[in-house]
Design brief:
With about 400 residues, this protein is mostly helical. The protein has 17 helices and four strands. About 45% of the residues lie in helices and about 5% in strands. Strands 1-3 form a two-stranded antiparallel sheet. This is SusD-like N-terminal domain-containing protein.
């Protein structure tokens, strides 16, 4: 699938209808206005989760786009597609095919979440999980475009203007606050509990978005509550991070829905391939336990490149959403400097807070938002097809 020419894909898209970039239908044949059973609503939720993990035909570039835009953690080995090079070089044109996917396909998750919210028999917990999906989907859009149209469950399919970046973040925050108040807490005795949204997952994403919105004190409160809750611990071995996971979506080999691990490996050297940048590697001290996340010893066999091994290379990488080390770093930034010391003691590191964030969260699709907080102003243009369909995007 990955090696099909994107030019063929482009032709197929041009021949298909694109009358309305936001008119995305649910793939499940259930009437949202009917009094559905709880099991039926749960089936709708599975579809919503899938849209986060697999938003388009080329989902890995939807997921990887923020890290590619940030650029400084990555060293390109080969660009087979110029569209990926456009992202890396910040030269994406409005007519770019990947750009179209990275706009309309995140609205798929929003559409599915809105469907669940409108079901009259959805429980508050189910609505909370749907609003978590909606919040995460909008966060992906914010990363790439900042101000985008806010489509809620009352959307009437009419042209809609983009909201301001601040309005988008506040919308995300309100969804996550509802999710936090209504989803059940994580059950530590359930090994699969971290695979779907929980109260703690909403708190973790809320901490991240508060920080992005300039409210570091509120971010610190959420982060500290998660740390003190005692359900998650920083692993001594960063490769064995199950107890660090607050939320992840599991990769699936049958669907090949997690290919970023492959793209970040030498296995993709003849395709669109990324190694680890030298200035990221330079952050690793001699005893840093995170060295196990990088194939440093293999460099003589891989053209001198070092590759990340944080993820599976079998097209089934999990999608990491939140881990407890991020909460330690947010709490430290909010003023609890002991949390930075605790993380550094486990990781055997003595970097600045900023560099600890960069190394600890590398290839978790967060770096671009950090650069924007530091003053990065580039954002992707709206796709030409979306502009043609909605004149208010101008």
């Amino acid at each position: 699938m990955k090696k099909i020419s994107i030019l063929i894909l482009s032709l197929g898209l041009l021949l298909s209808s694109c009358n309305n970039e936001l008119d995305i239908k649910s793939e499940v044949a259930l009437d949202a206005n009917a009094p559905l059973s709880s099991d039926d609503v749960d089936k709708l939720l599975v579809g919503a989760y899938r849209s986060v993990m697999y938003p388009s035909t080329y989902p890995y570039f939807n997921i990887m786009a923020p890290e590619i835009l940030a650029g400084d953690n990555l060293q390109p080995v080969k660009f087979q597609w110029v569209q990926v090079q456009y992202l890396y070089e910040h030269t994406t044109p409005p007519g770019d095919i990947l750009l179209s996917y990275m706009y309309k396909d995140f609205y798929k998750g929003i559409s599915r979440a809105n469907t669940i919210i409108k079901v009259p028999t959805s429980s508050n917990s189910q609505k909370g999980k749907a609003r978590y999906v909606r919040a995460l989907s909008y966060l992906r859009l914010y990363d790439l475009y900042e101000g985008v149209p806010l489509v809620d469950e009352n959307y009437d399919s009419q042209p809609i203007k983009p909201s301001s970046p601040k309005e988008v973040l506040n919308f995300i925050i309100n969804d996550l606050k509802f999710a936090k108040d209504n989803i059940e807490p994580l059950n530590v005795n359930d090994p699969k509990a971290s695979l779907t949204p929980t109260k703690e997952a909403a708190m973790a994403l809320l901490a991240r978005v508060y920080r992005m919105n300039g409210d570091i004190q509120s971010a610190g409160i959420e982060a500290e509550a998660l740390i003190q809750g005692g359900k998650f611990t920083i692993a001594n071995n960063p490769k064995d991070y199950n107890n660090e996971i607050i939320l992840k979506f599991a990769g699936n080999k049958a669907e090949e829905n997690g290919s970023w691990g492959w793209i970040l490996s030498y296995d993709a050297k003849t395709w669109n391939c990324f190694a680890v940048s030298q200035n990221l590697l330079q952050l690793l001290g001699p005893d840093d336990t995170r060295k196990v996340l990088f194939d440093i010893a293999e460099a003589p066999l891989t053209g001198g490149f070092v590759f990340s091994n944080k993820y599976s290379r079998s097209d089934d990488s999990d999608l990491l959403i939140s881990r407890i080390p991020e909460m330690y770093l947010i709490s430290a930034e909010a003023g609890n400097t002991n949390r930075l010391t605790e993380l550094q003691t486990i990781r055997k590191s003595n970097l600045s807070l900023e560099n600890e964030r960069r190394l600890e969260l590398s290839f978790e699709w967060i770096r671009w938002s950090d650069l924007k907080l530091k003053g990065e102003t580039y954002k992707l243009p709206f796709p030409q097809g979306a502009v043609d369909a909605n004149e208010l995007l101008n």
